[in-house]
Structures are given as C-alpha cells and as structure tokens.
Amino acid sequence: MVRGVAKDGHDFFKKVIFMSLLPHQIELLAPAKTADIGREAILHGADAVYIGGPSFGAREHAANSIEDIAALCRFAHQYHARIFVTLNTILHDSELEAARHLIYQCYEAGVDALIVQDMGLLELDLPPIQLHASTQCDIRHPEKARFLAHSGFSQLVLARELSIQEVAKIRQALPEPITLEYFIHGALCVAFSGQCNISHAQTGRSANRGDCSQACRLPYTLTDENGGVVAFEKHLLSMKDNNQTANLEALLLAGIRSFKIEGRYKEMAYVKNITAHYRQQLDQILERHPEWSRASSGHTEILFTPNPDKTFHRGSTDYFATARKIDIGAFDSPKYVGLPLGHVVAVGQDWIEVETQETLSNGDGLNYTFKREVVGVQANQAKWQRAGEDGQIWRIWPNEQVSRLRGLKVGTLLSRNRDHAWEMALTKSSAQRTIAVQACLQDSADGVVLSLQDEDGVTVTANLICDKVPAQQADKARQNLEDALSRFGNTLFHLEQLTLATSELWFIPSSQLNKLRRQAIEALVTARLAAWQRPALTPPTEPPFPYPETSLSFLANVYNEKARAFYRRHGVELIAAAYEAHEEPGEVSLMITKHCLRFAYHLCPKQAKGVQGVMGQVRADPMILKSGNDTYTLKFECRPCEMHVMGKMKSHIFKSPPPSVIPLQPVTFHRSPR
C-alpha cells in the first residue's frame, strides 16, 4: 500500500500550496516553440515556460495542440514549475467565442496562466485562470500598471524600454502580490510593443495579431527635410539583441521577480543555451541573497558551458536599462555574424587557409563583410594544417566556389556564426534537473516501511510485507540495504540522505527492496502533482478602478465590442477603433519608439545642449525615412524622448475587410459611446 502525506501529517490530497509567485521567489521564464522545447527549458533551469496554443498566440507559426500543452503541464508541475499560454493578440468580435472556448481548453489542460493583450477577454465568462498582462499592453508608467493590477491581472510584463529606475517607480506604485516581469534576453522590437502598425499599413499583416512582416529589419535611407542624406541603405530600425546579464541583480533590487527570455520562434539549441546561462547567473545571485529563492523545485546541473554569443544575435545591448546609449542599433546588418574567428592567410582554387586560435569543424558557418554586406559560407571540410605565428592554420573547403566569394582575399577577417561541434553537443542530453529527497526505512507491524520526503516537504510511504529475519552478516546487510534504496538513477529525484531506522538489520532480498523503492518514487511523483495548486485568479477591484484617461486613440488596440465595454466600465468616454478596423485613412503614427535616429547620428538638441557655438542651432525638425517605394516622416517628441514614424495605410489594405480568422459580417465601430 502507498499513501502520501504532507510534512504536517495531513493527506497530500488536501494539502494547499500557494503557488502564485511570492515576493521572495525569483522566476526564470523561458520560451517554447514546441512542447519538446518547453520540456528542455525546464530541465535547463526554467521556473516557468510560455508557449503558444492552437491560435491567438501572437506568433502565427508557433502554435501547439492542447494535447501537447497538457503533457507539458504535467511534466512542469512535477517540478512545481508553471506553464503560461500566450493568447495575446487583439480579437475581432467574431473570434471572441472561439477564444473563450480555447481558454477553457487551456484551463482543463492544466495551464497556470494566460498572457493576454485584449481587454475584451476580461468581459467574457472565463474559468478561474490567472491572467498576465502582455508586453503588448504597453506598460510604461505607474498609472497604467496600477490600473491593470486593479483590473484582474496578477503579473505585468513591462515594456522593454524601461530603465531600472522606472521599474522601481512602478514597483513602488503597486500592491505587493503583483509580480513584475521583464525581458532580459533576445530580439528587440524597435517600437513600444502594441504601438507598431507599420506592418499592417504596408502588407496587411498585423503585429497585434501575431503576423508581423518585420519592416524594422529592412534597409532604409535617412534624409533631412532638405533632402540631405544622413544615412544610406542602413538597417536604421533594426536593434541589437537584448542582454541583461550585467543588470540582473539591479533589476531584482528594483522589484523584478520574473525574468523573461524572448524567443518563441527559436530552436532547441537557443533555448537550452540561453536558459542555462541565466539559470547559472541567477543561482549565483541567490547564493549571495538568502532572502530570495528559486520559484520552482530542484537543482539543475548543466552539462555544457553556456555561451550567449554562440547562438543567434545581432550584437548585444542592455537597451535603456541603465541609460540611453548611441550604439543600440544593428544598422549594418540584421544577420548574425557570430564571434571573431581569425583571418585568411592563403587562398587556393577550391580552399582557403585561416589562422585562428579556435578549433574548426566540418559544417561550421563562416562569414565576412564586403562593401557593408555580410557574406556567409559553410565549411564543408576543415582540416588542421600547421602551427602559425599567432594561432593554428586550418584549411577550409567551402560549400561554394572560392572564385565566387566576393572580396575574399588574404587578410580578410572571418567570423564564425555556427560552431557545428558546439551545436551538436546540444542535440544530446545537456542538463539534468532533480529534486532532493531524504529516505528513511523503518519497521512496521508486518514488515518495513520506506518514507520519502522531498525538498518541498511532500512525504510518501510505501510498505513492504515481509518476514523480518535478522541478517547474519550485518555489514553486508547494511550495504545491501543502502545500495538498493539509494538507486534513484534516471528518476525525478536525487537522494540526499538515507536513514536505516529499523530495530535490527534485516535480511531482505534486493528484488523486494528495489520494488519498494520504485513504489515509493512513483508515489512521490503522484504526491507532488497532487500537491500542486494552480495560482489563484486575482479578482478585480470593485467598483471598477478608473482608467488613467477618459479617451483612447486607435493605439489602444480596441478591436471588439467587449473591449469597448471594458473600457466604458472603467470610465473611458471616447474610444477609437484599433488600426486594424481600417478607420484611419490618413497619416498617423505607425510606430512609436524610444530609439531616436537624431540621437544615433548626433543630431539631437539635447546632445547639443551646453556645447559652445552649437546650443540653440540644433532643432528636432522632421526627417524622412525611405525603403524602396515606401516613404515615412519621422517626427521627434523631445519631452518624452520618442520618435514617431508617420505614414498611412495602403489603399488596397484600407479597402479590405478588417482581419479575422473567422470571417463574418464586419463589425462597425463608433468613435463615441452609444
């Protein structure tokens, strides 16, 4: 017989564990394109994983079935880790019922929380599932954060552009149970999330609905009002990638409790590497700060050396976390150039030789820059040749004819953006995560009982009915008992301590001891799952907490009548329709960004302040941005330090029906309440 009990002796089926994030708990939140990647994220140290469901997940090509999500939830809950499903697109009226049905499916599958943008969802009859406010909600100010905290959200994903000081001000404005979440790694949207409509204006593909065309990665020419060229064919809206490694402790002190890695389109190797990197970084901080603890259970052993520079990035920046900086843009190329490798020392008919201090492998990805373009090539074969003056000489046979590699010559500097041997290591088992257990063997009336208690205090017992015959060789019997009961092998657990508390050392066959151990381990897994309790839904304040403003422009992304009803309940009187409703035919702010091209090219009036002979001569006049046949006006709001990319929707898109995955009668929006 197997029975589970909590540490205090109560039946584990009745045990209640408060699983909403507590102020001292620190969460590492990893992305998952698939459930398999989600499992690896947890094994590599994630305390929570966010993943897209079958639809409405703001990543059109990263959808997962409910069955796969349910299996991932069960896997995660063994470690008391959480699973969040992204349902963070804006919804057409015709999609609301489908979204509601999906939310119930997620709840029944065991999902712990939903990440949402559309306030219309809060007007639906939903299960008691916790809600997190997506970064698409554009949470930049204490007033907006306070409103969402009072409206039923438990966790707020802050805007990526916030400084550490601004984070601290938001934390001070909120009630303690509300968790603040902050992006610490990955690709950066140049626009404030939820404030970018350039993709929909040009292609009909809405970023607010998970189908961004990534216009920010295109090359642009920048001119002043008089036509003077400031920058020619540069990727002026392309940002470097986020890396907050150096700021983790400062962010913790400012009030961040959930550290989010971007990347629901990323492959397995990226998630393993970046999750493991931040697990190690946070564990080092937790060792110095015993007042904080990890948000989930277990210890993670990383079986490789994590290195964020080994996986795709466009260069690294901490963006605006510490101060506004000049070098946040990846203007030269949106591609991954990798790490410096060495230089070409010889060029043959079908090979090149490179001097490097690194070890090369067949399949490595190499690149170099020629006339501002990144030229990539793969090493079909790489062989060590000899020692060089400053490294080792390797001969490389590339996958293209050497004569066709433009600009490649002796002295050309090479980088490596794919370390094939390192990537292959990540295709194998690269991390182990186990939960600490203490075991105790004691006598029972008709045999012996094995008790297991894990690090969370969950305890189970397993009984073995057997004849208790004193062992003739005590030392051998002790060794037999210890060997059999210590074999936790490839289970969820690792044994910290085994206590043999029987009145005598009994002779018990190894086969019976092995069966007893397996029964206890299976019972402990079951007990942990039963002890898990989903985080509670945060109830909204009654009466409804007033929204900070009484009117909303199209930038509020109100795309259905339920969202309109939500804002009306919270005191908003004038509500414009979302840009996707096709009611804004003229020039509007297609993108609002804290990235400023005037600042990047030293043309900012604030930069000129105090410079002798310059002060007062530099003004924030509009500039022109052009890509192909598309032209935009840049307007600069100096008080909030923002740049607006102004433009209008293409005519054929404006005349088309508002987008919906469930095409029904188009909804009619009204600019004033009825």
Q: Any overview of this molecule?
A:
With 674 residues, the chain is α/β, with parallel strands linked by helices. The protein has 15 helices and 33 strands. The strands form 6 sheets. An 8-stranded parallel β-barrel has the order 2-3-4-5-6-7-8-12, surrounded by 7 helices. Strands 1, 14, 22, 23, 24 and 26 form a 6-stranded mixed beta sheet that branches. The chain has a 6-stranded antiparallel beta sheet with strand order 10-9-31-32-33-30. Strand 31 (623-627) and strand 32 form a beta hairpin. Helix 2 (66-78) packs parallel to helix 3, helix 5 runs parallel beside helix 7 and helix 10 (474-485) packs parallel to helix 11 (510-531).
Feature tags:
28% strand, TIM Barrel, 8-stranded parallel β-barrel, 674 residues, single chain, globular, 6-stranded mixed β-sheet, Thrombin, subunit H, alpha/beta
Summary of the model, kept short:
It contains 15 helices and 33 strands. With 674 residues, it is α/β, with parallel strands linked by helices. The model is unreliable at 1-19 and 664-674 (pLDDT under 50).
Give the terminus-to-terminus CA distance: 66 Å
CATH superfamily membership of the largest domain? Copper homeostasis (CutC) domain
Number of helices: 15
Strand content: 25-35%
* Topology, number of strands: 33
Radius of gyration: 29 Å
CATH topology of the largest domain: TIM Barrel
Q: Tell me, what's the shape?
A: globular
Top-tier CATH class of the largest domain:
Alpha Beta
Number of domain units:
4
Q: What is the mean pLDDT?
A: 92
Structural class given helices, strands, pairing?
A: alpha/beta
